[in-house]
Amino acid sequence: MSKKRPGGESLPSAPSTATSPSPDHEVPAATPAPDPKRWWALAVIALAQLMVILDGTVVNIALPSAQRALGMSDADRQWVITAYTLAFGGLLLLGGRIADLVGRKRTFVIGLAGFAAASALGGAATGPGMLFGARALQGAFAAVLAPSALSLLATTFTDPKERARAFGVYGALAGGGSAVGLIVGGLLTEYLNWRWSLYVNVPIALAALLGAPAFLRDRSGRRSGHLDVPGALLGCGGLVALVYGFSEAEPRGWSSPSVLTPLVAGVALLAAFVWWQSRAASPLLPLRIVRDRVRAGSLATMGLATIGMFGVFLFLTYYLQVVLGYPPVRTGLAFVPISAGIVIGATQIAARLLPRTAPRTLMSSGMVLAAAGMVLLSSLTVHAQYVTHVLPALLLLGLGMGLTFMPVYATATAGVPAQDAGVASAVLNTVQQMGASLGTVLLNTIATSATGRYLHSHVRGPDADGATLDQGMVHGFSVAYRCSAGVLLLAALVAGLTVRPSKDPS
Which residues of the chain, if any, have pLDDT below 70? Predict the structure, then answer.
């Protein structure tokens, strides 16, 4: 029976906790004894999660140096980022189902080893093609590693209070890893060289590999079954097409055939994927996972949150470096408050409140706080001061992300049968990755268009001076921040309306 809150709402239960029978959930026969090494397992999983998340941004600050060293063109440099996101976002569902069929601990170890090898290959790159290939390999192994890590966490922690603490740590890393990546990237680029932004993954992966055999225990529900090959082709093809279309929208424009064709193809392939999943004997994504209203609402909240949040790192990096003239290390350190806010919000506030507070309350409150931070950022000028203008916004954003991501991770993975834990985790990671890709493209397009309109109306001669260019850039960022605030408020509304567990009939 679910626990009751004042007001009659029931708390979401962990996967191994007894729940009321429903068509979408299997009822475990008994609650297994807690793993005595579970906190060491959390440390291993956290290391892997940190490595995957920070790798999405650690290369960003090092990219100009890598471009100069390898002779990359401006048109090709985007593939350092896009090769990773294409492979990662497109293969996540396949990676999650492989984890369920082969075993999550085994795929976790394979993902770690492969990610380390691909990182070493990228760090030793002698040309652009070698670096692009290594980044694609990183994304492919991350697609195996990320869902197995989250599903191991979901099946290791079964006590509600311990589960909240564990997901608090995971949520803090998921939200703060991008900011940590900017800090690490700045330090490595300025004091070593760009290659260390890739080499840094090797010791992290080795540390996790040493701990995995000793501390991880795989509670797999099923090792039998067959891989849904048609579903894998349709689902992965659709996601790759969408991510590719999003990535090409910024340099080519939304009306370009190179953008519209993959976007239309992606939607068509995903529609065919859904149709096939309702008929396949062993579906890649059992539709019962996403039919649950609470889980669907959590996934939608995560998608909207990442769409609204991801632009802050891109725009604020340019604002600090180009407008305020910060060097790479100072730019990275400027993001420390948002990381601190995420850690506090996830581990000290959300993790303590979740066992007795409705998840939707935490999610909605977090998104409102983050929206307030975005509104503050929209008022920045070319002469703004970091302490009085940027710092308060980053603290609000960090607290809001921590309050939101932690209950989303815990709620979206609750009540999933053990044999589907990997693919359920992959769905959540896919939503996050797709939201980040879509958010970056949409917000960057909005900012660029607003900057162009500003310069068109303010520049009288053939060329604009530096001050006008800076003002135009900041104006574009401000418009994008206001759009981000609107998306985050929509996420708060979605969480409040959909993440409402059914009342226990008893």
Answer: 1-36, 56, 74-75, 78, 158, 171, 173-179, 218-225, 250, 311, 418-422, 459-465, 501-506
Q: Which of 266, 268, 250 is nearest to 430 (CA)?
A: 266
Burial of 410 (0-12, 13-18, 19+ CB in 10 A): buried
CA–CA distance, 122 with 135 (Å, rounded to integer): 7
Q: What is the pLDDT of residue 53?
A: 74
Phi, psi of 242 (to 5 degrees): -65, -45
283, HSE (Cβ side, Cα atoms, 13 Å): 18
Distance CA 189, CA 321 (A): 14
The predicted-structure confidence for 264-296, as pLDDT tens digits, reads as follows: 999 999 999 889 988 887 787 778 878 888 888
CA 282 to chain centre: 27
What is the C-alpha to C-alpha distance for residues 272 and 232, in angstroms, rounded to an integer?
11
Residue with tokens 């680029």: 189
For residue 254, give the H/E element and its range: none
> What does the DSSP assignment read for 441-467?
HHHHHHHHHHHHHHHHHH--SSS--HH
How remote is the C-alpha of 150 from its chain's centroid?
Answer: 12
What is the Cα–Cα distance from 171 to 166, expressed in whole angstroms? 9
Annotate 21-83 with DSSP letters as a single string.
-BTTBPPPSSPPPPPTTHHHHHHHHHHHHHHHHHHHHHHHHHHHHHHHHHT--TTTTTHHHHH
CA distances 261 to 102, 174, 328, Å, are 35, 32, 38
Query: Measured between alpha carbons, how far is 245 from 36 in angstroms, rounded to an integer?
Result: 47
| Integer Cα distance of 334 and 321 in angstroms | 11
Nearest to 491 by CA among 297, 238, 236, 280: 297
The number of beta carbons lying within 10 Å of the beta carbon of residue 466 is 7
The separation between the first and the last C-alpha atoms of the chain, rounded to the nearest angstrom, is 8
